[in-house]
Amino acid sequence: MNEERTMVLEMLAAGKITIEQANQLIEVLGGPSLSAAEQWAGQPQHEERSIPHLEPLEPVQPLEHRRLTNFTFDQMIELSEHEVDPGYLRSLRDAGLTDLTVDEIIELSEHEIDPSYFVKLREAGLYDLSVEQIIELSEHEVDPSYLIKLREAGISDLTVDQLVELSEHDIKPGYLIKVRQAGLTDLDFDAIVELSEHEVKPSYISRLREAGLYDLSVDEVIELSEHDIKPTYVKALHDAGMENFTVDQLIELSEREVDPSYLKALRGGAN
């Protein structure tokens, strides 16, 4: 630490940094702020001090208490210019984030990403996220507890964009569980989101399929649900031999309370 502190004082004495920047660099290094004597001694006007020529500096070696990363002095200056609080660096380190680049640290700081958010994401099972993905999750206010509920439900194969969409549409993990329990593995993600928004129960889709309606679009399922078309009514029509009705015709038959047995009788009479 003494060697690194001396280097900071040399930069101060050479007029390359201000006292404020020197204190910020010292704080990044984990040491106490410059004393009044050090500030006085470091002023450029004291030409009697022998200032050695500074060659390009090698990365600073790790401190005994382990810093976030091995910053060069140029990097420390860059962190200072972007007003990255040394306390923020310590919080990142304490959160176990010791492999970030300077650009990533600056980006996280500028987006005001709380290091504790990283910890909670990891507790939710998200370990290999990029900085951009973490920022996206944070800016969309995706609650890590929501992700934990998804994981506990056995749902761990979603992308970050899908997680954001689920959270924004307030789709409960239980709904996804019911979709899977209903065997609706052919539904894509967008279809699940749309069905959830229209409060279509996965069991309703399963019962429609059991009634003989296999090739319905998402819009058709939603339309049937909103018109409260009972799967039992559809099945009764199919049992009566009426299998080729369109969705609009099914809705009209149901709303007009046409009895399937009546249609079956008409069909039998016509034969």
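^ that was protein a. below is b, sequence first then the tokens
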Amino acid sequence: MTSSNCESPDRRSFPLNFANKRVRFLCLRLIAAFIFLFAAGCAHRTTTVQPPAAPPVAQPSPPSGAPPPTEPQPPIAGQYVEEGVASWYGVPFDGHRTSNGEIYDMHQFTAAHRTLPFNAVVRVTNLQNGKQTEVRINDRGPFVANRIIDLSLSAAQAIGMVGPGTAQVRLELVSGPNPAVGFFGVQVGAFQMPENAERLRSQLSARYASVTVTKYDLPNGTFYRVRLGREPTEEAAQQLADQLHSAEQMTTFVVRLDN
């Protein structure tokens, strides 16, 4: 046989190379499968969106305006009680100063009274329909015969007397200063001309003591009130008023002297 220096391929290395390639091929397939599964998982992942929080439920606001009339109640034993005719006042007095210096607001529960002390709280009962309300005294009046109290518009609405204008009422003191403490006088006239007030003062000073003229501003002008007496009780002032009415034929009003 003739020998050749050209070496033929080593057949013993072929199975090993083939096995290595097969392992690499399987590894690549595993890696590709893993990537596919990972991508599929990401594609099917869902995002959960939280719904917005529900807004708070609005609470109903308390009603405004005049309080409802209270149930009829009997008079309080030992307290101030008075019965007579009530009236009410609004425009043009609304927004002007009251006798105690406050600005009158007809939508507040206040009233004018001739003798009760300022800041006294009074229960007012309409004797025709039984409706009640409470008011604070911050003004003086009414200076009209046979009337005992002037209510604000809101107070008059609460007891159902705005339409009629007047009503028979009962007054009961709820709280405040002692109504018996103080000084009382008698008003006998109110004039827009100061000379007329001075003329009456001069006439009465000849027969009575402590006659004064007091200037007072109202929405419809300035008035000069003629008053006399300085009595320690309302009863004594009423006796003086009766005397003046009988002897002088005057229209009189017992008033608390606030100064």
